[in-house]
């Protein structure tokens, strides 16, 4: 009955016209893009303002010989004159001066920091340099913790690509993420077309840091797997952007036999399944053949026509790079080999300053009571006051 009514009349009766939901999704996407552009633009203006303020103060100090008392006075006057404006404390103004000194050519110099990392978020086709796209707190952290400009640029790019918070960025710096990215042994260059091979290589790390686990030797592979799934959010953060969890002990069948994949992921950027095989101990060549078989089955049973070839990743505690390279020769599926660490190694200077287990045990033994001497414990129970008895008067006979 309603099919014969005009579209406007159908809508009045609560019937949505064809294409309504597509239009709604399009509008939502446009609103989100506009909001993102507005946030980026506002952040870029704030960062540029801080750089400009730092430059002006630094120039005056150098040209006119202003002393250290100028910045505290400026902070106090700005607070009095513009009480509603935040971010101009003495500490922050000093950071602005440092910011200008770190980038003397200006933060618009793209050769210094690199090209914008997120082209789709650039307003009107005119993007901001990377340093202006990340929040001020991130810039401060990078100034203080990363002195090499090329390494700093890498962390800026990764912050934008992965949406790292300041705390996550600090964790990545502590874990030397820039040294581990793209370092896995693999056969991607031989088996994947470019640029898929380059993207796949940069997706993997070596080593992976699982310091959020509390495993102690000896432990089993299943315990490692359980711990990673229990801390799935931290595990995904360590894996990097794009990994979507599919399943644990994922069952596949070949003929009359069943097999179980330790961990199965789908990578959104690579458009490919990723099979992770967890191993305790040292890498062995036979691991590559087994994972090659798993990847073949996943390609046949799970891979869609639009998906890229399935990628395998062997995670073991230690590996010999040469042995791993030989093991991957002749393998017809793209496979990477990486190691993992359950704790981060301490710097040598700090390690030498810490007592050994033997020294701690000896110290504890020195303060423990000897076995043949009973330990005297102080009685801390409340005591009742003792009332003295009054002496009765002595009789004359007693005197």
Total number of distinct structural domains? 2
The number of distinct helices, counting runs of at least 4 residues, comes to 18
Low-confidence stretches: 109-126, 345-351, 370-380, 393-399
Radius of gyration, CA atoms, in whole angstroms: 33 Å
Question: Helix fraction?
Answer: 40-55%
Distance between the termini: 130 Å
Structural class: alpha/beta
- Tell me what portion of residues adopts beta-strand conformation: 5-15%
Q: Residue-averaged pLDDT, rounded?
A: 83
Tell me, briefly, the overall form. globular
Task: Please provide the count of β strands.
Answer: 7
Task: Give structural notes.
The longest helix is centred in the N-terminal third of the chain and has 45 residues, at 20-64. This protein has two domains: 2-174, no CATH class; 185-346, Trna Endonuclease, Chain: A, domain 1. It has 399 residues and is an alpha/beta fold. Mean pLDDT is 83; it is low at 109-126, 345-351, 370-380 and 393-399. The protein is 48% helix and 12% strand. The protein is globular and about 85 Å long. Strands 1, 2, 3, 4, 5, 6 and 7 form a seven-stranded mixed beta sheet that branches.
């Amino acid at each position: 009955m309603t099919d014969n009514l005009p579209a406007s009349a159908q809508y009045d009766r609560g019937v949505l016209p064809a294409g309504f939901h597509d239009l709604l999704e399009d509008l939502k996407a446009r609103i989100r893009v506009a909001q993102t552009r507005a946030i980026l633009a506002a952040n870029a203006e704030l960062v540029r303002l801080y750089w400009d303020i730092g430059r002006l103060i630094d120039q005056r100090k150098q040209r006119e010989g202003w002393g250290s008392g100028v910045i505290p006075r400026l902070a106090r006057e700005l607070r009095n004159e513009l009480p509603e404006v935040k971010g101009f404390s003495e500490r922050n103004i000093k950071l602005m001066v440092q910011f200008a000194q770190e980038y003397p050519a200006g933060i618009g110099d793209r050769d210094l920091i690199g090209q914008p990392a997120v082209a789709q978020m650039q307003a009107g086709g005119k993007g901001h340099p990377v340093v202006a796209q990340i929040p001020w707190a991130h810039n401060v952290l990078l100034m203080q913790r990363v002195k090499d400009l090329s390494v700093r640029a890498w962390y800026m790019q990764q912050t934008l690509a992965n949406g790292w918070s300041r705390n996550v960025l600090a964790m990545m710096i502590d874990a030397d993420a820039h040294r581990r990215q793209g370092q896995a042994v693999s056969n991607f260059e031989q088996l994947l077309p470019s640029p898929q091979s380059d993207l796949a290589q940069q997706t993997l790390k070596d080593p992976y840091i699982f310091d959020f686990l509390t495993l102690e030797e000896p432990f089993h592979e299943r315990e490692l797997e359980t711990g990673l799934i229990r801390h799935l959010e931290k595990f995904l953060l360590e894996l990097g952007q794009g990994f979507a969890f599919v399943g644990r002990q994922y069952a596949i069948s070949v003929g009359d036999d069943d097999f179980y994949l330790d961990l199965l992921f789908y990578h959104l950027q690579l458009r490919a399944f990723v099979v992770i095989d967890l191993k305790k101990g040292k890498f062995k060549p036979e691991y590559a053949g087994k994972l090659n078989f798993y990847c073949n089955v996943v390609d046949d049973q799970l891979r869609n026509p639009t998906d890229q070839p399935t990628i395998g990743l062997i995670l073991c505690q230690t590996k010999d790079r040469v042995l791993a390279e030989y093991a991957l020769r002749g393998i017809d599926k793209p496979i990477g080999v990486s190691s993992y660490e359950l704790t981060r190694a301490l710097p040598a200077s700090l390690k030498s300053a810490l007592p050994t287990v033997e020294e701690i045990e000896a110290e504890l033994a020195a303060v423990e009571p000897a076995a043949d001497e009973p330990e005297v414990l102080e009685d801390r129970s409340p005591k009742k006051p003792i009332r003295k008895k009054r002496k009765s008067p002595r009789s004359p006979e007693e005197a």
